[in-house]
């Protein structure tokens, strides 16, 4: 299948490692030009070098914090200025800490809302008008299976990411008439640094090993294993492509079947 991604211009946020980097790599493999951002310049540059080396694609980078609207605004504007277009925007950020409700502070709630909801709003505010103008676009949020089924100990993610689902569905209605597709992809337990960090913290709390925590997560999925970042990226790349042309407003899990509900 030709995905029609050659020379498309894509922003992938929070992409120095993990899911964001795998998505950027996947898009680059299909011939897209990718603009990466994350907070730490050094890891961002090594991610960009790896993507260039493996794919030969054009890659630009910007060290920024997605919770800062002005930095996001300039990044999107500079990318559009350099390439004359923006076709794809993948909204992503780090995850909020693992806490019970009693352990959270008001500041934790405000930080989670800024990190996961407002960062998506900032990217949407800047990217969607450009896509609307060109009558072609793909805006994809990376959230979590927590939008379909709450995960124990992740109340901040369980609560705040549902706001992103509501945002994405509404945007799909507002931008559909302009041929801009807006979707939400929800990772399950996927082997990244974020998961290592979560398993370590949970293991400390429970007095078990991180491996035992990861094995427990794996057993919860019908496939009996954690996902790989590339398996997640494959769906995002498809949704970003020409071939996804009649799919908008959906939240799709890439979770090895861990969500037990029907939808
Ligand atoms: P990760 O920690 O491996 O990578 C996160 C990336 O985001 C890094 O590149 C980091 O530099 C960047 N980043 C973090 N905060 C940022 C900020 N404020 N501004 C700019 N860049 C920032 O995480 P991951 O596993 O790739 O997860 C990506 C997202 O998906 C997270 O929100 C995570 O909570 C969510 N998620 C992950 C899993 C999983 O199993 N890996 C499951 C469900 C949801």
What would you note in describing this structure?
The protein has 263 residues and is an alpha/beta fold. It folds into two domains: 9-188 and 229-254, NAD(P)-binding Rossmann-like Domain (Rossmann fold, 3-Layer(aba) Sandwich); 189-226, no CATH class. 49% of the residues lie in helices and 14% in strands. It has eight helices and seven strands; from the N terminus they run E-H-E-H-E-H-E-H-E-H-E-H-H-H-E. The chain has a seven-stranded parallel beta sheet with strand order 3-2-1-4-5-6-7, with helices on both faces. Strand 4, helix 4 and strand 5 (137-142) form a beta-alpha-beta unit. The two termini are 27 Å apart. The model has no long low-confidence stretch (mean pLDDT 97). Bound molecules: nicotinamide-adenine-dinucleotide. The site of nicotinamide-adenine-dinucleotide has 27 residues, from helix 1 and helix 6.
Short structural summary:
The protein has helices at 18-29, 41-55, 69-83, 106-134, 155-175, 193-206, 210-220, 229-240; strands spanning 9-12, 33-38, 59-63, 88-91, 137-142, 180-187, 251-254. The chain has 263 residues and is of the alpha/beta class. It folds into 2 domains: 9-188 and 229-254, NAD(P)-binding Rossmann-like Domain (Rossmann fold, 3-Layer(aba) Sandwich), CATH 3.40.50.720; 189-226, no CATH class.
């Amino acid at each position: 299948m030709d995905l029609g991604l050659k020379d498309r211009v894509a922003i992938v946020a929070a992409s120095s490692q993990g899911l964001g980097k795998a998505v950027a790599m996947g898009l680059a493999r299909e011939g897209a030009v990718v603009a990466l951002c994350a907070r730490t310049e050094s890891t961002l540059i090594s991610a960009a070098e790896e993507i260039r080396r493996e794919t030969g694609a054009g890659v630009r980078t910007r060290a920024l914090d997605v919770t800062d609207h002005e930095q996001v605004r300039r990044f999107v504007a500079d990318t559009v200025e350099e390439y004359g277009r923006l076709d794809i925007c993948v909204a992503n950020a780090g995850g909020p800490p693992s806490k019970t409700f009693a352990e959270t502070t008001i500041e934790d709630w405000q930080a989670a809302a800024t990190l996961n909801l407002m960062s998506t709003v900032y990217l949407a505010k800047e990217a969607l008008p450009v896509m609307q103008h060109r009558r072609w676009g793909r805006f994809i949020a990376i959230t979590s299976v927590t939008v379909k089924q709450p995960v124990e100990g992740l109340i901040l993610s369980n609560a705040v990411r549902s706001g992103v689902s509501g945002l994405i569905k509404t945007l799909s209605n507002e931008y559909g008439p302009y041929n801009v597709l807006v979707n939400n992809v929800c990772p399950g337990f996927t082997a990244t640094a974020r998961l290592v960090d979560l398993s370590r913290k949970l293991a400390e709390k429970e007095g078990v090993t991180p491996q035992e925590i990861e094995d427990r997560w794996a057993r919860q999925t019908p496939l009996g294993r954690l996902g790989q970042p590339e398996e997640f990226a494959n769906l995002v790349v498809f949704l970003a492509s020409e071939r996804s042309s009649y799919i908008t407003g959906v939240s799709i899990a890439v979770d090895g079947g861990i969500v037990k509900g029907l939808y």
